[in-house]
Amino acid sequence: MSKLEFTDAFSQFEAILFSFACHLTKDEDEAQDLLQETAYKAFKYRSMYRPHTNLRAWLMTIMRNTFINNYRQKKRRQTLNDKTNNNYFLNSGGRTVHNLGESVVTLNEVNRLIDSLEDWMKVPFLMHYQGFKYEEIATELDIPLGTVKSRIFFARKRLQESLQALYQAGSVTELLN
Known about the structure:
Layout: H1 3-12, H2 14-25, H3 28-44, H4 55-77, H5 100-104, H6 107-115, H7 119-129, H8 134-141, H9 145-169, H10 172-176
Helix pairs in contact: 2-3, 2-4, 3-4, 7-9, 8-9
């Protein structure tokens, strides 16, 4: 089938394809986009069409598969468009939700808790926090690797317990002063 014959045959089914696209998308603009994408794919892969077979079914299959693929892609992205004139993305992160964790526990309070640790836990913990690897800490402090790991573990555990106690007490500033 020549390009001219294929174009002529495609134009005969254009109204039916648009109707099918409207049925799938429930929106005229999206239906127009789907029709255009279907036309692009049909012309791109027209060599795969077998002459004297049902062209309408072939085109509708392309449209249906294109619609399904687009739907799956949108579902993965989970981006919802607001239907107002500004087309603002609803999940763009423009709205900030404040929680008590941000306002109650500050960096100064955490530093005070770290300072309250015993030196045998605090030194390896701070070195690890500063970016030293376990092996480097062990070499620097001249202690076994397992000891470094356990001291950092105990420091984390103690800090978690202290933070939990602060949350349960209700007022962080009263306990720290």
